[in-house]
């Protein structure tokens, strides 16, 4: 056994927001970047609405389905297809079930257990835009939670909505593991009497309850780290939108987010997709490719994009 | 005065504690603008908080900035690692300046406890230019476009508004240049060679 096999893979998930903002483009190119840097990557398409990751690599879907995996007819590896790029494998088709509510809890656990055991350095999951709690739970299980946004008001609104849902769900599950499953939904249901209007006030309210609630909430806040990537940037001042959104997450909602970087709009992106050509392969020296690399490095090291404020002035 | 207070100030201005002096001002201006005007990032959440909560966000930003200015004025965490006492003289000094000139830049720099070397390192502006700016040795300074850039860099490190400082200083420099055009200028070529 090599060292790589003994270590658990790091899981990154991208989800939420709005359709068409570039989540799949971003995650497939980050996967490509990691693969180019000698990391073994499995990229999973778990977008219920529109599984399309294979298109970014110009390959076809496998014929095997998840049902066969659940019936123990095939191992998880049989769902994996070659991406055409060294070190990068795809797990596509029917895996949308990760975000589906028809799938049984035990089946989801089994699937995740098998996914975790895949031989890889990184497992990247595209969850699509869904806000169903099954998708959110998978998002919360990731070592790195990534969200994408574009400099448009509706996309930003969607992002806030998703992040609030994610954090609300995080509070519920963290408290559930301390035997307080119903606490948050109960308080929220009676929010009028508690004079709670928003997530920030809910967090403040929880912080005043008896032990161990304040500690659980404080540690949930501390461990919660979402990485924001700004896509389709067309003008330099737009770069600051990422900093603004990050700041509002902290000051309005009370949780920490990290602005991992931006990617500019490039007309060649859709052209590549239509030609079924991986973007990074076609344009290895473009600014977009460089920015994707910068985002990937920041994600690897868990650090923010530092030029953010300087870019605007 | 305690360390927690400083760390909280950094958190409010959304910095890690290794932030540079000149970044603090940028962060402050950025946040002040974000929370006092409407933008695509803030519009979707306008109804999220009450007017009072929003005002308190702005107040916190203001207080953190003023407090950090004092912190840096007293030398930051450099040296002994001891936290400095509260100081308000920097604010008073800056408020007393009606128009920036070389000597006032020097006063602010000394009040902040920063050396010419520190500034040269941070801005990459050669130290003799910084000294000539402070001393207003206009005849030693390069042409206005370059000098203006140096003054902007200088002002940023001093946490001053670079546009205001550049405007004040350059009007003095340009006055001197206008006054000098009648006389033959002996050293005009020197600045290009050095
Ligand atoms: N940086 C970009 N520049 C130009 N077009 C982009 C960029 N990112 C994404 N796109 C385009 O936006 C469309 C939607 O992207 P996709 O990744 O499928 O979004 P999502 O997964 O969020 O629904 C794609 O067809 C792609 O061509
Ligand atoms: Mg997609």
SSE map:
The complex is a heterodimer of chains A (313) and B (194).
Chain A: H1 3-6, E1 10-14, H2 23-36, E2 41-45, H3 53-57, H4 66-70, E3 80-82, E4 88-91, H5 105-117, E5 122-126, H6 133-141, E6 144-149, H7 153-176, H8 183-189, H9 191-194, H10 199-207, H11 213-223, E7 226-233, H12 240-253, E8 257-264, H13 268-274, H14 279-282, H15 287-301, H16 308-312
Parallel strand pairs in A: 1-5, 1-6, 2-4, 2-5, 6-7, 7-8
Antiparallel strand pairs in A: 3-4
Chain B: H1 3-12, H2 21-36, H3 51-73, H4 89-96, H5 102-112, H6 116-123, H7 127-135, H8 144-157, H9 162-180, H10 190-193
Bound molecules: adenosine-5'-diphosphate and magnesium ion (MG).
Note down, in words, how this protein is organized.
The complex is a heterodimer of chains A (313) and B (194). Chain A has an eight-stranded mixed β-sheet, with helices on both faces. Chain A contains 16 helices and eight strands. Chain A has helices spanning 3-6, 23-36, 53-57, 66-70, 105-117, 133-141, 153-176, 183-189, 191-194, 199-207, 213-223, 240-253, 268-274, 279-282, 287-301, 308-312; strands spanning 10-14, 41-45, 80-82, 88-91, 122-126, 144-149, 226-233, 257-264. Chain A has a single domain (3-301), classed as P-loop containing nucleotide triphosphate hydrolases (Rossmann fold, 3-Layer(aba) Sandwich), CATH 3.40.50. In chain A, helix 2 (23-36) crosses helix 15, helix 6 (133-141) crosses helix 7 (153-176) and helix 7 packs across helix 11. By secondary structure, chain A is of the alpha/beta class. The model of chain B is unreliable at 77-87 and 184-194 (pLDDT under 50). Classes of the chains: A alpha/beta (313), B mainly alpha (194). Chain A binds chain B through residues 151-153, 156-157, 160, 198, 200, 240-241, 243-248, 250-252, 309-310, 312-313, and chain B through 14, 23, 26-27, 29-31, 34-35, 39-45, 48-49, 53, 57. Bound molecules: adenosine-5'-diphosphate and magnesium ion (MG). Magnesium ion binds at residues 23-24, 47, 50, 52, 128 of chain A.
